[in-house]
Specification:
11% of the residues lie in helices and 58% in strands. With 88 residues, it is mainly β. Strands 1, 2, 3, 4, 5 and 6 form a six-stranded antiparallel beta sheet that branches. The longest helix is centred in the N-terminal third of the chain and has 10 residues, at 3-12.
Length: 88
C-alpha cells in the first residue's frame, strides 16, 4: 500500500490524527508512553522498536502498533526513517 492508502486505512480504523513524521539518521527515543494506541507505518528507512522486552526492526511497508500506556523505545536506522503515525 502507498501512503494515501495507509492514511485511509488508519482513518477507517478510527485513528483521529494521522500524519507523516521523519527522523534523521540514528535518532533514538528513550522509553516513553502514549496515552492511547498508536500505529506506525514505515515509509522510508527503518526503525528498531523495543516493546515489553521484544526488539524488532521495521522496514518500508511494515506496520506496528503500540498499545496505550505501554513503555517502548525507538531507534532509527543509519539513513533515518520516514513514517506514518496514527493516534487516537
Amino acid at each position: 500500500m502507498d501512503e494515501q492508502q495507509w492514511t485511509k486505512q488508519l482513518t477507517d480504523e478510527g485513528f483521529d490524527d494521522v500524519y507523516v513524521w521523519e527522523d534523521g539518521p540514528n535518532v533514538s527515543y528513550p522509553e516513553h508512553r502514549h496515552p492511547d494506541v498508536s500505529a506506525h507505518v514505515i515509509l522510508e528507512g527503518e526503525m528498531t522498536v523495543t516493546v515489553d522486552g521484544h526488539t524488532r526492526t521495521y522496514k518500508p511497508g511494515e506496520r506496528f502498533d503500540v498499545p496505550g500506556k505501554t513503555g517502548h523505545t525507538a531507534s532509527m536506522g543509519p539513513e533515518g526513517c520516514k513514517y506514518l503515525v496514527g493516534e487516537r
